[in-house]
Design goal:
Oligomer: single chain
Number of helices: 14
Order of helices and strands: EEHEHHHEEEHHEEHHHHHHHH
Distance between the termini: 86 Å
Length: 363
């Protein structure tokens, strides 16, 4: 006689149930052949039925007035039974039903998936960031816009994992689990930052690394606005031991480069997989390779970063103007082949010369 669907929570209005009904078979509703009668039933009215007493709440009489397709009795029974099923399954349900004579039949029930809406802060780190120094420097140049969830869970996680592994190997933390996920690279409403406070631990646990070194390596300048790094330093012997570990980390760059090249040569995703589900599963199965690759990358780049920071420190003591020190450092690096960031400087210089020449020709 009648058929339809019942959402125990209306996806568009969570304070109501949503019932849609058509005369005849439910196929007419699903195919769009017939326009369904819609009933938005307040959850408070459904709760009244469940309290018992045998009386149909006035809300149902109002919803079924003026020649409505369903009677108050049928509508209230659909709501009551659907509510019981939802409670038994402990999740909101998307159900299909049919009525023949005076009997209600349930044809299907499944969890509602459309309630799972995205939020801007859905992927923000779970730990509190009060009193942490975070920056868009460096990571914002690599990934300047908002990132997708897949990028965040694979690429950004690898960036973070590699940094946490580096800190662990260098002695800043005893074990990887001492730092939560995304303690180094994190997202705030989809945009990426580096948590410098986590990396600043190096200053307290080694002799060679300082806040200035971290700032220059990651941000290209000393962050005076970050203030003084608080916290107790490890004793001298502990810092000396960690310094040896850190030096070993820096000097292992050739082995790391060989491992990175081997990983690049053998890495593949998916094989014959073509479906979205299959590819996603293949990515999840292979993502540990991205973690390892980032760690090897940090080993190969940390050596040059450390040398660059040391050179900047020397220049900073020689010249009173920090900008002059950075300019000299940039000129020195520009003469080295094979450095991508240096190639950018050289390319910009060529563009500037071409523009200047064109202006002179036009003039």
């Amino acid at each position: 006689d009648f058929a339809g669907v019942c959402f125990t929570v209306d996806p568009a209005d969570p304070g109501h149930m949503l019932i849609e009904a058509v005369e005849g078979l439910g196929e007419a509703l699903v195919s769009g052949e017939k326009t369904a009668a819609r009933y938005g039933v307040p959850l408070a009215a459904v709760a009244e039925i469940e309290k018992g007493g045998g009386e149909i709440p006035q809300t149902f009489n109002e919803l079924c007035a003026d020649g409505a397709l369903l009677t108050p009795a049928v509508l209230s029974e659909i709501c009551e039974r659907a509510s019981r099923m939802s409670a038994a399954r402990q999740t909101p349900l998307d159900t299909e039903w049919a009525v023949k004579g005076d009997r209600l039949y349930w044809l299907q029930a499944r969890p509602i998936t459309v309630l799972e809406t995205c939020a801007e802060d859905e992927f923000d780190p779970e730990y509190g960031m009060d009193n942490n120094v975070i920056t868009r420097c460096n990571i914002g140049e690599m990934l300047p816009g908002a990132v997708t969830p897949l990028t965040y869970s694979v690429s950004v996680y690898a960036i973070d994992w590699g940094m946490r592994k580096m800190l662990c190997v260098a002695g800043a933390n005893k074990k990887m689990r001492a730092l939560p996920d995304y303690a180094c690279a994190l997202g705030v409403r989809g945009h990426l930052f580096l948590n410098l406070s986590t990396v600043y631990r190096m200053e307290k646990t080694t002799i060679l690394a300082s806040k200035q070194d971290v700032d220059v390596s990651l941000c290209g300048r000393v962050l005076e606005e970050a203030g003084v790094i608080t916290g107790k330093k490890a004793n001298f012997f502990k810092r000396f031991h960690n310094t040896r570990k850190y030096l070993g980390f820096l000097l292992s760059r050739k082995k790391a480069r060989a491992k990175l090249e081997t990983l690049a040569d053998t890495f593949s995703i998916g094989g014959s997989e073509t479906s979205p589900e299959g590819l996603y599963g293949a990515i999840c199965a292979a993502k540990h390779a991205a973690d390892d690759a980032m760690y090897y990358h940090y080993i190969t780049s940390a050596h040059s970063g450390a040398m660059s920071s040391a050179l900047y420190t020397i220049l900073d003591k020689t010249f009173s103007d920090p900008e002059r020190s950075k300019a000299i450092l940039a000129e020195l690096l520009e003469g080295i082949d094979g450095i991508e960031s240096v190639d950018i400087l050289a390319s910009l210089r060529r563009v500037a010369r071409a523009v200047s020449l064109r202006q002179r020709v036009i003039g």
